[in-house]
Amino acid sequence: MKQPNQYVKPSTHYTAIVDDGNPFPSGSIRFNTADVRVETETATDVSVYVEALTEALDDYLNGVEWRQAAIENTPCEFRPAGSEATGQQIITMADRSVTFDPRKNWDNQTISKGEVLAGSVIFTEPTDTALVISKRFTILDHNLMAGFTEGSMHQTGEKLLRDIEHDAAGKIAGILSSAPSTESVSATKPTGKPVEIAEDLIDILTMNINQTVGSSLSDFVVLLPVSLLAVLERAAQRAGVEDIESLIGASVQPYSGTDYGLFLLPKLFTSLSYREGANGDIWKIQATRNGAHQCWDVEIMTVVDIVANGKVKVKLTVDGLQTQTVAFPMITNIKLT
């Protein structure tokens, strides 16, 4: 039993001044004898949130799991710091004619079209434009003063990763749309129910396979606008298959931003070359305190080269003694009109 005037050790758990309308408020003053933040208020500390979020992003983006996911989504490589992007030399699977800028041979004939025979070697080079992937966002102190949970942090991280993936893919689509080795074709945009649209899209993709670098849709990654994602997912559900990849028969990578159409990226060629830093990390996650605005600025960035310029030698003379290296159409860009 509490005795009158008994001393009570200050605690972090109770009370403050009580104001019951009396002109002379009564109560006890709250004293803290320990570090309150660590013990009881961690879930309202913005610095704790930022630290946990950036560490989780760093662990994933610079871990084995992300590299495996990246390889599944797009043909890519991860190269050591200071090294150049790796070009490939691949044998063509089928004959095809290639149109190029007019060249003159020794007989003073102007040649603008040449045959590339099956068995010819295609080699790839990086495009003139490298891509800097940078996602910057701000975490304001007052947005987290009410606290946060593990679940909300997990949702935030998932949303950030999805936005980075789709935004970066959109920038890549923009570079590929004007790359010399990208061949553009047009097709009528499908309409109707999701199942009907999906079937028409599969037909369009199948009819535009580049047989020199692949023989079926499974040999390609389909880069498509994110607006088609929900349609294809619904069609997959109606068809009773697990996902879009199972429906189409090819890997799928959605992109956001400007609609450049659909792209067929051959899996036999590396399309993306990620640069590792001196410490072996591909992604750099940086958190900076912005005192002027009472917030944290977080930036996630990396640099990637687009290895998508295909080259091949064509004969300018019948005897084959004079050859010329020209751009080879390797990636198909299907524009829906």
Please give a structural write-up.
- This protein has 337 residues and is α+β, with helices and mostly antiparallel strands.
- It has one domain (41-336).
- The chain has helices at residues 36-39, 46-61, 64-73, 150-177, 194-207, 229-239, 244-248, and strands at 17-18, 26-27, 76-79, 89-91, 96-104, 110-116, 121-140, 182-187, 220-225, 251-255, 262-266, 272-275, 284-290, 295-315, 323-327, 331-336.
- Strands 3, 4, 7, 12, 13, 14 and 15 form a seven-stranded mixed β-sheet that branches. A five-stranded mixed β-sheet has the order 8-16-11-9-10.
- Helix 2 (46-61) packs across helix 4 and helix 5 crosses helix 6 (229-239).
- It is elongated.
Summary of the model, kept short:
This protein is an alpha+beta fold. It is 26% helix and 33% strand. The N and C termini lie far apart (84 Å).
Global geometry: elongated
Number of helices: 7
Helical amount: 25-40%
In total, the number of domains comes to 1
Task: State the separation between the terminal residues, measured CA to CA.
Answer: 84 Å
Q: pLDDT average, as an integer?
A: 83
Largest sheet: 7 strands, mixed
As residue ranges, the low-confidence spans are 29-40
What percentage of the residues does DSSP assign to strands (E)? 25-35%
Structural class: alpha+beta
* Element-level helix/strand string: EEHHHEEEEEHEHEHHEEEEEEE
If you compute it from the alpha carbons, what radius of gyration comes out, rounded to the nearest whole angstrom?
29 Å
Tell how many strands the DSSP assignment holds.
16
